Amino acid sequence: MISNLGNFFLFFSLISITVFYTGWSKKIFTSDTVFLNLIYVTSASPFLVLVIGFAISDYTVLNIFQNSYIDDPIFYKVTSAWGSHEGSILLWIFLINIYGIFFLKTNSNKEIHKQIIFISSLFILYLLISSNPFQKIELDKTLEGLGLNPILQHLLFIIHPPTLFLGYIGLIIPFVLASHILISKNFSENLFNQMLFWSKISWFFLTFGIVLGSYWAYSELGWGGWWFWDPVENISLIPWLLNTALIHSLQVSIKSNQLKLWSLNLALYSFIAAVFGTFLVRSNLIVSVHSFATDPLRGLFLIMIIAYLFMVTVRLNVKSVSYFNQDTFKIISKETFLLLNNIFFIAAALTVLVGTIYPLFSEIFYNSSVSIGAPYYNFAFNFLMSPIILLMAFAPQIKWGEHKRKNNQTFYIIAISILITAIVYYLLGNIFFSLSVFITMPLFIKSFLVFFKKASKDRSFFSQWLAHLSIGLFIVAAVYTEQFDYEKNITFEKGDSNEIVLDEDTSLLLENIKDSDLSNHQKISVDLIVVEKKLKYSLSPSKNIYQPSGQVTNEVSTVNRYFDQYYATISMIESDKVSINLVYKPFINLLWISLILLVFSIFLSIIKRK
Amino acid sequence: MKILKLTSNFLLVIFLLSLFSMGYSNENKLNDYFKTIRCLVCEGQSINESDTEFAINLKEQIKIKTNSGMSIKEINRELVEIYGEQISFNPSKNHFLLWVMPLILVLVIFMFIRNKLKFFYKKK
Asked: The whole model's pTM is what?
C-alpha cells in the first residue's frame, strides 16, 4: 500500500513535469502557478508517504524494514525515515519542492521554476533508477525490523539532517536566480535582492545545521571534541564558506552596483558544492564516519547530475565572460574589503576541497595513501582566517565608494590589543591563545566603540555587528577550549577507595552503579561526583545495549561549571573495575553560545527585511 | 528595539560570567598527539577517540615509549615506518604542494581579480 502510493506519486510528478515542459498543461490549467503548485505538492508527497509508512511500521517495504524496529519509540520510528540513504535523498527532493512552493509566492517567473522542477526531476529519476525507497519485500508476519542505528537515536538527529539539508537545498534558489539573470541578461536590483534574501535563508539553516551536527558529535560520540575535520564535516563547510562569501559580495552588487557577475558565479558554484558534497558522501569514495552503505551506480548517477549542473554553469561563464571588465573601484573602500573577504573565503573553501580529495589524488598518482586531518586544516585556517578577522574589526566602518576620513583610532586600537595580548601571555603563558586574543581584540574594542554610536540604533547594522562579534567570541572560546582542556582516565577497582584525587583541589567520587531495562535498550550507568573544595558536580555516564542489534553505545554525561564543563564517559566496565574518561572543557559553553548568537544574528537580518 | 537591548544585556552577562571561568593548564600533550594518529581499523577516527583494540594497544605502546624517554618525533617516525604514511593525520612535508596550497589559492584568486576586474588601475 505505502509502496504503491509512494511510487505512484513519484511517477505522477515526473509525468506532470513533462507535461509542464511540453506546454500541454496550458490546455488543462489556465494558470501556470496552479500547475506549478500541483507539481511541487505531488513531488513533495512521496516523502510524507514514507514517513507514514515508518509511523505505522509497514514492513512490506524493504527500506522501512531495514531501518526501523517495532519497539522503537514512535518518535524515532518517524525520524528513521531519513536515517537511510534512500530516505535522505527523498527528504532532499521533498525540501527542493517545499522551497519551490515558498519561492513561488515571491516570484512566479515560469522560466525560473522550470529549472527548479527540472533539478527536482533529476533527483526523482535518480531515486527510481538506483535507490528506490519504496522497494517491496515478501510479507512475513513475524518481522520486527532491523532497527535504526542506535547512534542515530538522539533528539538532535531528528533536527540536524533536515536543517542541514534545508541549508544545502536553500542554495538552489540563488542558483536558479543566478542562471536566470545570466540567461535573460536582466541585471535588475530586485532579482539581486531576492538572491540575497534566499542565500541568507540558506545560510541560516546551514549554520544552524552545522552547529547542531557539531553539538551532536560533542554530546553523543563521547570523544569530547566538537569538530573533527572529518570529510563530511569539511564538505558541509565548503558551501557554508562559499555562501558566506556570496552574502558579502551581494552587498557590493546591490549597494554599489559592482561585482555582479562575481556574485552570480558564486551563487552557481555554491549550489554545485552542496550537491558535490552529498555525492562524495554517498559514493563511498572517501572514508568517513558518516559513510552510508553504497553501490557504484548511485555515485555514477549523482556524478551525472553534478556534470549537468557544472556544464550549465560553465556555459553561462563562457557566455558572460565579456561583462567582466566593467567593475572598477577605489582601493580604500568598502568594496575592496568585501572583495578581500571573498578572496579568503573562497580560498578557504578551495583549501578544504583540496584537502578532502587530496588523499584520492595521492593514491592515484603517488600510489601512497595519506591522511589529512586537524593539523593541516588548523594550519590552513589559521593562515586564511586570521587576516580576515583582523580586517573584520575595521571593515564595517569603511565607507562605500571612497573612504577619506583618517584618524589615529586604528593605531590606538592595535596598540591596546598588543598590550592586552602581552598581559594575557604573561598570565597564561600560552602562545596560541594569546595570538587568538591578538586577532580578535581589535574586533571587540571596535564593536564596543561602535555599539553606542550606531549598532544600538540601526537594526540592520546591529545584526551584522552581532554576527561579527559572535565570530570573535567563537574564536576566543574555541582556542581556549582546545588549549586548556584536560583529560584523565581514572580506574576504580573493587575493594579500593571509591574516591580518587585528581589534583590538590578536586577529586572524583564513585557513588554507585545501576543497571536498568528500558523499552529498546538496557542501560548500565555509573554515578559520579566531582568534588571541588565546597562545590559538587554530579555526573552519570552510561553504556546502552540496544535491541535488536546488541550494539553498545557510550552515553556521555556532562555537568556545567559556569562556562566550563565536566564531560564523562565510561571507557571500560567489568565486574571488578570501572574506567572513567573525564574531560574538563573550559569555555565550551561560551563556544556554543557564540554559535547560537551567530545563528540568531542572521535570523535578525532575515526578519528585518519584511 | 527591545530585542536589541535584551541581546546586548545578554552579551554583558556573558562577559561577566566568563571572568569566573578560568582555571587549569594544559598538561596532557600526549592526548594532543593521540589526536593526530589515525585509528586504521576505524572510519576516519583518531586513536584518541576510538575504543577499538587497535587504538587502545597503540595508546599503551606510545605511553610506554614516552616513559622510556623517546620523543614524540621519534615515535612518529617509527609509526610511519611500520604503518605507512596514512597513520598520521599530519601529512609529512613531502607533500609540499598541499602545504603551500592555501597561499597559492589566495594568490591565484587575487591574480584573477586583478586581471578581470582591473580596479587597481582606475585613475580618476
From this structure: 0.91
Whether a cis peptide bond, with omega within 30° of 0, leads into A548 is yes
Residue ranges covered by each domain of chain A? 1-153, 162-402, 406-484+591-607, 487-585
From the CA of B30, how many Å to the nearest CA of chain A? 10
- Look at the block and give the residue holding cell 552547529: A211
Among candidate residues A108, A572, A194, the one with its CA nearest the CA of residue A202: A194
Residues A11/A14/A20/A22 CA torsion (nearest 10 deg): -100
Q: What's the longest Cα–Cα distance across chain A?
A: 86
As a dihedral over the C-alpha atoms of residue B100, residue B103, residue B108, residue B114, rounded to 10 degrees, the angle is -160
Contacts of A354 in chain B (CB under 8 A): 98, 101, 105
- Could you report the per-residue pLDDT of A505-527, keeping only the tens digit for each? 888 888 888 888 887 788 889 99
Q: How many CB pairs under 8 A join A and B?
A: 165
ipTM of the complex: 0.85
Q: Can you say whether the dihedral through the CA atoms of A467, A473, A474, A476 is positive or negative?
A: positive
Cβ of B119 and A331 within 8 Å? yes
Chain B contacts in chain A segment 530-589 (CB below 8 A):
554, 561-564, 571, 584, 586-587
For an interface test with B, give the residue of A223, A370, A466, A532 to mutate (most B CBs within 10 A): A370
Q: Give contacts of A 464-493 with B, CB under 8 A.
A: 466, 469, 473, 483-488
What pLDDT digit, counting tens, does each position of A223-251 carry? Answer: 778 888 888 888 899 999 999 999 999 99
Domains of chain B and any CATH numbers: 28-121 (1.10.8.640)
Amino acid type, A56: I
